[in-house]
Amino acid sequence: MPIGLLGRKIGMTQVYTDTGKVQPVTVVQAGPCPVLQIRDKTRDGYDALQLGYKEKPRRKATRAERGHVSSDLESKRRKKMPAGTQLLPKPNCEPQTFIREFRLEAPAADITVGKVLTAFEVFKDVKEVDVIGLSKGRGFTGTMKKDNFHGLGASHGVKKAHRSLGGTGSLSSNRGSGRPKKGKKMPGRYGNERVTVRNLTVVSIDAENHLILVLGSIPGPNGGLVTIRPTNKVK
Amino acid sequence: MKNKFLKVVEDAAFKKVAELAEKSETKRVIEPFQVGDTVEVHLRMLDGDKERIQVFTGMVISRRGHGMGEMFTVRRIVQGEGVERGFPLVSPKVAKVTVKKTGAVRRAKLYYMRDRSGKGTRLKERIVREAPAKAK
Predict the structure, then answer these.
(1) Most buried by CB count within 10 Å: which residue of A89, A109, A208, A225?
(2) Domain span at residue A92?
(3) Is the ipTM of this complex over 0.90?
(4) Does the residue A202 lie in any domain?
């Protein structure tokens, strides 16, 4: 998987193409993301980059979070180590709020811990991207909104059940067990789950403000944290 | 309040529209107008590969949206039949908007004009005191 970036959904607007057509776009702020750790095939069993996004105030970060990014933090464990023990390289940056790993096929050659990746260098030649986010939580929801059921009729004798899901089973639906099938779609919690939207066209990149404009909508509320990567959709 | 990054994007998009329009012969001028004004909307039409300007004149009966998505509706009477057309305020296709006549109104949306005909559709001119009432 190629390297992506972490970011934030800013909001939607529209822009015009060179031919005067209007396009609905979502503005995503991607990066700058410091590399926090490099996973190694021999040591960790796989190659990956661990990126962070958005600084977290030090007073709010836990000791572990502060230690993860700093090589200077004093600790009992570090003191106990025999002299000359090599610690893993640390980025020496501020603690990060949003941390994710990106798997790599082969070790990244020119990337070292502490390097700050920006939208322009990662996405400059990328035409389509995937965006992963957490969808808006909708709470306890009926089947019409959640599973696109059609509900019952508006008339013909339907009483107070116009948005109902209808029957949940029949004698033959589960080999006559007398119970509804496992996994039957019913009302329940909807949203607040990981959603991936694939193959979104990149309209433009604003290198100065780390903004990427993608065509169409992405999951989550404005300000929601997202992962953005070059698409893995095979054409 | 709008996010500052969204504003950055919209400002850039607005500039691009202005630049697109500059390539053409007619200069893009959008005069500030309000609901109730009678305006002339100049539209770029592509006739084969030649550009041509079409003019739509009428009264602005609504303005809605903001930023890049702002739209306005113009109503006019053609052969006794009311015709309404909506335009995006920021579009390279809209070449020019000129105010022909102002109109004093107390509503944001003049949908009541649809029920009126003849002399009932006239509006008093807006009297502008000192500074212009509203920019853009």
Answers:
(1) A225
(2) 5-73+88-138+196-230
(3) no
(4) yes
